[in-house]
Amino acid sequence: MMDRVLRQLANWPMSKVDLSRGLGQKTVSGQLNKVIRLLLADGSIGYTIPAKPRSRLQRYRLTDKGRGAVRQRRNMDASREETP
User: What is the pTM of this model?
Assistant: First the structure.
């Protein structure tokens, strides 16, 4: 699920609700909350409003580390498709 969240954030910042919908969920699940906490702690994603982590306007964005992870995953997927 971590990879899916990172790919969702690759284009633009999103709220938890937007992420949940993008993943095909009806509501924000406990698993999504856990994944977001792990990615924040890891430094792969960050807040768009760092001073107010509980703001209703809060969105999540990829950091440089997160962009690198997405790029690496895409390269792995592309190389897997090329091998017969």
Answer: 0.89
